[in-house]
Every structure is written in structure tokens, then in C-alpha cells.
Amino acid sequence: MSSDVDYKKSYTYIFVFYYLCEGFVQGIPFLFWPNYLADLLGGSYNIALWLAVYAIGSIPFAIKMIVGIFNDKWGSKKYGQRFPWILSFGIFGAFWWFLMAFHLPIGEIYLWLAIYYFMTQLGMAFSDSALDGLILDVTPKEKLSRVQGYTWTFMFLGYGIGGMGLGLLFLAIGCVPLLFITTGMLMVISSGLTYLIKEPPIKEIDTREWGKELLTVLTKKRNWKVYIYTFIGAIQTIVLLTFFMYVILIAMGVIDVQETILSIVGGGAVDMQFWSSIFYLANGVGIAMGSLIAGKFGDVSRKKTISKTFLVYIPACLILVIPFIFITGNIMPLIFGLIFLILLGALQNALIVVNQTVRGDLSKTYYPNLKSTYFALLVSLSNLGQTVGVIAGAVIFTIFSIFIMDFFVIFFIVSIFCAISLAISFLIFRTIPAKDYELERNL
To answer: Of 38, 215, 244, 309, which has the most beta carbons under 10 Å away?
Structure first.
């Protein structure tokens, strides 16, 4: 199960730098653009329209498996199987960052941000899909979990540095177009550096046999276990964090309970940009800790690491709200909130890293000629699960808010939903043969 090439330490640095830059590309729109909008529009912006822009920008990461099909089949004998796809889509995404620096009419700001969001993320998602294939091609099984841990850590580091750090800095000094140009340049540089990675020789694959193998991606029963485990396990990711931030602010007395419930039920959102930046920072600390720890232990034993993470995370969902029922004031809820956000980030991303590692192993085991396609499909299902989780959480919240006006109780019900989804995912994972993903020494 080792790769066909000698893995060099420099490859890890290239992967890490790429994901750091990807964090910029994803973090600047999500964390910085709302502040930029408010600045351009005189202090406020339309949250509903911004959420529509965000939804459009999220689409590419749900369809990234499309390019996986092509980069598994066609490559260049001179430049490699993955590199041409990584670089070309990196340049494509960078072009839209450059264009945005020079053309962003305020009169049609939401329309153009939606276009730029979609196009920049399309380039990033498709380039990232080919990079995932490259990581699976060259990374030995015994290093895969640590590489996943490093890349996820640095992606979220870039997410915070770009979205909250550099974004606000460039806004303060009035040089936001320069930030966009810099982000585009980083896309090109990080994509271009992957040329230094020696890819395995391109294998000649019979088109007819390749087509039959591609068809089994949807028809084989064993795959559907993996699909369901991936989809259901991702449901809790966004919804739990989003609603928990409201819990902290309500306990602190920053926002009103009834007003918050009415706003969410009405399809809106509470504008809490200042506090969300602090909360995402705390969550990011947990993300780094969880990713690195899971990466280290995942390369010791996949099964034990993922099992222990599930078994800690499931009950943790159910106790998140308990301290806030008994504490009041501004300081104690904030302290408990930041501690729990760190814990939540660590557990969520430990689960993401080890799940990504397992899915990478399954891709190499089940489809050695379709690694990028299969892995990208699983990532798309994970992204879809997050989206469905947000919708399901909103539906649950809306239904129970008819009878209950206690936000903490409603959050606890949402937490039960998240815990159940995690438990189902874990039970399905247990049915997947360990020999398909576990290190040989542990079998």
C-alpha cells in the first residue's frame, strides 16, 4: 500500500503551503467580505443577500468530483497526471481574484461578489481535487494521517490569517485590491510548486475497462456504506457550531433570546461579526490541536483513533449547553464558551482528519485508477452533509420554536440530532472491513 515514488520531506512542505494558501482563498470571502461589504455600503449590509452570495460560492466544493474523473483518466507524460490540472485551475481561480481587484462596482456589489465567489472557489475546488489525487498518489500509507493533519491545520490557519488578520489589516490601510492581487498570486505560486513533486509514471488504462470501473463507483454495495457514513457524519459540522455561538451570546446577555429566535425562524441571521471573529479564533485553536493530534495517532491506528474520537464527541454534543443554564453575567459564559469552542474545534477536526485519512485509504484500496474521483466524491458528500445539516437544524429549530421559547432547550434538541447522526455514522463505519483502511501491522 506504499506509494510508487520515494516520498520526500519537501513534499509535505509543498502540500502545507498549498493548503495555507487555500485557507486564504476560502477564508477571505467567508470571514472578511461581510466587513468589507459593511465598509463599502456605509456601515451595514443585507444579511439575506450575503447568505445567498455565500450559498453560490459554496457550490464548487459540492461538485469537485467532476474534475476528479478527468484528472484520473487524462494527464501529461511530460508534466504528470495531476500537475496540469492543479496549475490550470489555480491560474483560472487567480484570474478572478485579479479581476476583482480592478472591477467591483458598488451598485451591483452582491451580483459581482456572487460571480467572483463562485469563480474563485471553482478554481480552488477543482485544483484541490487534483491535489488530493496527488497526495494519495505519492504519500505512503503510514504517513497519510499526519499529512492530512498538517494540511488541515494550515488550511484553517490560512483561513484565520487571511479572513480575519490580513483582511482587516488591508481594510484599515485602504488597500483591499492589493489583498485580492496577493491572494491570486498565492494561488498561482502554490499550484506551480507542485511541479517539484515527482509523480508516479502514468499508467495506460483501457478506456472501456476504465468506464466499467467508473460505473461501479455507484453500483457497488460496499461503496454505499462509505457514502452514508461520510454524509451522515458531516451533518453536525456547521450547524452545531453556528447555534452554539448564539448560546454563548444569549448567556452573556449580548443578544435577546426572543429576538434571536424570531430572526432565525424568519430565515435571517443575527449580525454578530465582532463576536464571531473571536469565536472562530478560539475554534481555530481547537482545530489546530485536534488536527495535529489526530494526524499523529491516526498513523498509529486508524480504527482506534476514529473510534475514540466518536466516543468522546457524541456525549460532548449533549453537555455543551449545560453550564450555560446555571451561569450568568458577561465573563463566565464567555470563558466557558471559549473553552467549549476549543474543545468543539478539536473534536470536529480530529474527526475530519481521521475520516479523511480513512477515505483516502479506501480510495487507494478500492479504486487505484480512480483515486481522485472516488475521494472527491466522498469530499463532496461530506460538504453536502454539512449543508443538509444546516437545513435540518433550521427546520428542527423552526418546528420546536413554535412550542418552546427557551433557546437552550431548542439547542439541546439540535444537539441530540447531531449526536444521533454521529452515532449512526460510527455504527456504519464499524461495518467497513478494517483491512481496507487500517495499517497492516494492526490487522
So the answer is: 309
Q: Which of 2, 298, 278 is nearest to 150 (CA)?
A: 298
| DSSP H helices in 266-370 | 273-298, 302-319, 322-326, 331-366
Residues 239/393, Cβ–Cβ less than 8 Å = yes
Work out the widest C-alpha separation in the chain, in whole angstroms.
68
272 has pLDDT over 70: no
Give the up-direction half-sphere exposure of residue 75: CA atoms within 13 A in the CB hemisphere: 25
Residue 8 corresponds to which amino acid? Answer: K
For the chain, what is the radius of gyration of the CA atoms?
22
Chain centre distance of CA 200: 28
Q: What is the pTM of this model?
A: 0.84
Render pLDDT for 188-214 as a digit per residue (tens, 0 to 9). Answer: 999 999 999 988 877 776 667 767 777
Query: Do the Cβ atoms of 410 and 397 come closer than 8 Å?
Result: yes
Lowest mean pLDDT among 271-275, 295-299, 422-426: 271-275
- Which residues have CB under 8 Å from 405's CB, separation 6+? 257, 258, 261
Taking Cα atoms as reference points, which of 240, 420, 425, 242 lies closest to residue 348? Answer: 240
Helices 141-160 and 273-298 pack at an angle, to 10 degrees, of 170
Q: What is residue 234's DSSP assignment?
A: T
Quick one: which of 390, 393, 407, 399 has its CA closest to 260?
407
Instruction: Quote the mean pLDDT of the chain.
Output: 85
Highest mean pLDDT: which range of 37-46, 152-161, 400-409: 152-161
Q: How many angstroms separate the CA atoms of 307 and 321, rounded? A: 24
Q: Pick from 113, 37, 34, 56: which is nearest to 275 by CA?
A: 34
Phi and psi, residue 272, nearest 5°: -140, 50
Contact 98, 181 (CB under 8 A): yes
Total count of residues recorded for the chain: 443
Of 247, 266, 356, nearest to 302 (Cα)?
356
Q: Evaluate whether 366 touches 374 at the Cβ level (below 8 Å).
A: yes
